[in-house]
């Protein structure tokens, strides 16, 4: 009776809806053991209260579960990931395969087409500047001075292009795991810890706002 008293309605915020959804699954006993390990062995009642609150919000008849919400409302592909008996390497590899099933994510990095377009635009700007400088130099200097200036500018231009191409290649060679571990996992871990501390009514919305504020 106590669990059936409150009804929940989930609403989709498309501007913050994630492209990938991974729902970890663990037996209640495993969750309780880890909770008491981190909060103290005298926190069993506190864990049961929070677990009942979670069940009420997610597994009550007529209420979308977290997985159902993203599948039915957000129309997203959801990965349900059991964690019992798996180490971090197994969990990471399963998540990586799920996220890369349609290609490696760029995580707000420019695409190859955007990088190529940027390089071409810089080349065009350099060419324009060189032509203008060459025209002005031709009026003031002899052909020998103009040739020396052109050679110098050509070397500078090639150095700039080489630098951009090298930076682009480094981005392409960076493994997804290394990128995630360096830029995503620390912030995501802190955000999840904060969610566990606060226990908000809408953990997904709270986590999204936390990551945006601490980006």
TrEMBL record:
Domain of life (superkingdom): Eukaryota
Naturally occurring in which organism (per UniProt): Spumella elongata
Protein name: Uncharacterized protein
Pfam families: Dpy-30
Gene3D superfamilies in UniProt: cAMP-dependent protein kinase regulatory subunit, dimerization-anchoring domain
InterPro entries per the UniProt record, alphabetical: DD_AK7, Dpy-30_motif
């Amino acid at each position: 009776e106590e669990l059936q008293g409150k009804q929940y309605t989930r609403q989709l915020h498309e501007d913050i809806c994630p492209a990938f959804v991974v729902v970890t699954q663990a037996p209640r006993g495993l969750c309780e053991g880890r909770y008491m390990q981190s909060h103290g062995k005298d926190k069993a009642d506190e864990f049961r209260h929070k677990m009942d609150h979670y069940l009420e919000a997610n597994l009550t008849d007529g209420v979308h579960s977290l997985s159902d919400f993203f599948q039915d409302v957000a129309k997203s592909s959801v990965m349900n990931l059991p964690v019992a008996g798996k180490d971090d390497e197994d969990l990471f590899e399963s998540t990586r395969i799920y996220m890369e099933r349609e290609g490696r994510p760029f995580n707000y990095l420019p695409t190859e087409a955007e990088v190529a377009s940027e390089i071409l635009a810089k080349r065009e700007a350099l060419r324009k500047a060189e032509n203008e400088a060459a025209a002005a130099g031709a009026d003031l200097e002899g052909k020998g001075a103009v040739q020396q200036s052109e050679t110098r500018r050509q070397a500078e231009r090639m150095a700039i292009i080489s630098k951009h191409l090298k930076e682009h290649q480094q981005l392409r060679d960076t493994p997804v795991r290394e990128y995630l571990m360096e830029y995503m996992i620390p912030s995501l871990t802190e955000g999840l810890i904060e969610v566990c501390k606060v226990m908000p009514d809408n953990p997904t919305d709270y986590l999204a706002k936390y990551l945006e504020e601490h980006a």
